[in-house]
Design a protein that fits this description.
Glycerol-3-phosphate (1)-acyltransferase, two-stranded antiparallel ribbon, 9 strands
């Protein structure tokens, strides 16, 4: 392990929780007042999602969003010290029986969540109390941060997967009955997803979970780790979501993807300050999907044997 990473982990282990929260608050406030572009994005997103809230209420949510995001990374290194004896001081888990039942079915598990609360604590709690999952994320631009994050997860036996060639990596794991966690709440390009309703607006969402569930029969479960007022967390695992399979692939992809995102929206509405409103979630527009569809049709006529983008 990188000596700098070791030093950071040692320093974090000796830092009291109140001091870590104070540091996170200072960083979050600095970001709120200096990173105007992200604040404008968040304000636009929130004003469309909650048209009845005042500007003051929306700005309060944005401040909470900054703090929630910073806290996730400030607290992240502490997962290496989690065990069955001390986990309750950090995270309480509800619905573990859903996870255990899905594991017993032996067809693999696709857990989905979003950039909400502290998703890393939720992953860690599953690793401590049951079978460690595999976490999928894009490879970070910083080699140091990539090594840092993967080493922390690996300390608890959590597998690290990258989104590049996702299907090739995930399908064998599901066949072995393993669990994979994916954050599916961010914008994707038109060629990579379908448009679903999210907070009353069309949003382009990844179809990865739906594709893999339909192809393998893996169980699909939602999981959200919510920050409590006292600084601890509650990780809630929802019951298995039945996969829609009518035989119409495109309709089933849309229906399943909509179902997953509806659950994310319902959770975010409960605690809006814990979701990443700073992201351009509605960046891809339906007109881009129509352009892609037209281009794809032309390509198919020119190359009739080609598999459409997104197909298994």
């Amino acid at each position: 392990m990188n000596i700098v990473i070791k030093f950071i982990m040692i320093l974090e282990s000796f830092t009291p929780r109140p001091l870590k929260r104070l540091f996170a608050w200072c960083v979050a406030r600095t970001g709120y007042y200096l990173l105007h572009t992200h604040k404008i994005i968040a304000l636009h997103n929130l004003s469309r999602a909650f048209p009845d809230k005042s500007t003051g209420e929306l700005l309060r949510i944005i401040k909470e969003t900054y703090l929630s995001f910073v806290l996730t990374f400030v607290e992240f290194p502490s997962i290496t010290r989690f065990n069955k004896n001390n986990l309750h001081r950090h995270v309480r888990v509800k619905g573990l029986e859903h996870y255990e039942r899905a594991l017993s079915e032996g067809r693999g598990i696709l857990l989905f969540s979003g950039h909400y609360g502290n998703w890393e604590f939720g992953n860690a709690a599953l690793a401590v109390l049951s079978r460690a999952p595999h976490f999928m994320a894009r490879r970070l631009d910083s080699a140091f941060l990539e090594e840092f994050s993967t080493s922390l997860r690996s300390a608890l036996g959590i597998g690290n997967l990258h989104k590049a060639n996702a299907m090739r990596m995930v399908l064998p794991l599901l066949r072995k009955g393993e669990a994979v966690i994916l954050l599916i709440d961010q914008n994707v390009a038109a060629r990579e997803g379908v448009f679903i309703d999210f907070f009353g607006r069309p949003a382009c969402a990844t179809t990865g979970v739906a594709l893999m569930a339909m192809h393998t029969g893996a169980a699909v479960l939602p999981v959200f780790t919510t920050r409590m007022k006292n600084g601890t967390y509650v990780a809630e695992i929802g019951p298995k979501i039945e996969t829609v399979k009518t035989g119409n692939r495109d309709d089933d992809l849309l229906a399943n993807t909509q179902n997953y995102n509806k659950i994310i929206e319902e959770q975010v509405r409960k605690h809006p300050g814990q979701w990443l409103w700073l992201h351009r979630r509605w960046k891809t527009r339906p007109v881009q999907a129509r352009r892609h569809s037209s281009a794809n049709q032309v390509s198919q006529k020119a190359n009739p044997g080609q598999i459409p983008g997104g197909a298994l």
